[in-house]
Amino acid sequence: MASKKYRIIAVELSDIIERRDPSKPNLYVGLSKVAPETRFEELLSGEGPENLRGHFKQLRMDLIEDVAEYSYMKQAKKALQREKRRLARQGHWLNGQNAVWHGYVIDLDTQGITNFGKGFVYVGQTSLTPEERFAIHKACKPSPPARDLASKIVRRRGLRLNYELMEAMYPKSPVYTAVDAKTLEKSWALKLKKMEYRVEAGDATPRDEEKDT
Asked: Which domain holds residue 74?
C-alpha cells in the first residue's frame, strides 16, 4: 500500500561497471513512497531507470544511514543528495554513473603581468583527465553553436600542467562528487595563494580577504 511519505532506498546492482573498491558494491539509490521491499519488487518487474533494468540484485537498506520518512518531495530530494554524496565518498558507484573529478594546476605565461609572486597559475577541476582538459583549454575557439568550454586566460597564457604543484596539493584528487570537486578547486586555489602564487580559478579565484583553512 502506498504511503504519503518518501524514504530513501538502496539496491545493490550487478557489476555493470567495474567497482571502484572491490568491497563496495555498485548501488541504485533513490526515493520510494512504498515499503522498500515493495519498491524492490517493482524494480525487478521492470520499473526504475531504463539503463539499470535487469541489474537489480538485492535490497541494501543496511547501507542507508538516513532512514527518516519525509512528507515533502523537496526535503526528500535534499536528503537523497546528502545520502548519495556520503555513499559515493565511501567508494560506491551510484546509479550507473562512474564519473570522477580531478583537480589540476596550469602554469600561465607571466609576460606583461606584475605581482605574480612565485608564479602565475590557473586552478581547475574536471571530470576528464587533466591532460584532456588542458587540451580543451588550448584548442581553437569553436564555431557557433558549439559551446566554448575553454578558459580565455588559459587559451591565451596557458603553458603546461604543473604536476609538481598538483602532487603537493591537499586534499588529493580524484574526488567522487561534483560538490567535492568544487570544494577541492577552491581549497587548492586558496593554498596556492597562501604559497604566494598569483591564482586564477574562474568562480573559485581567491579574494584578498579569503584565508586558507
From this structure: 7-90
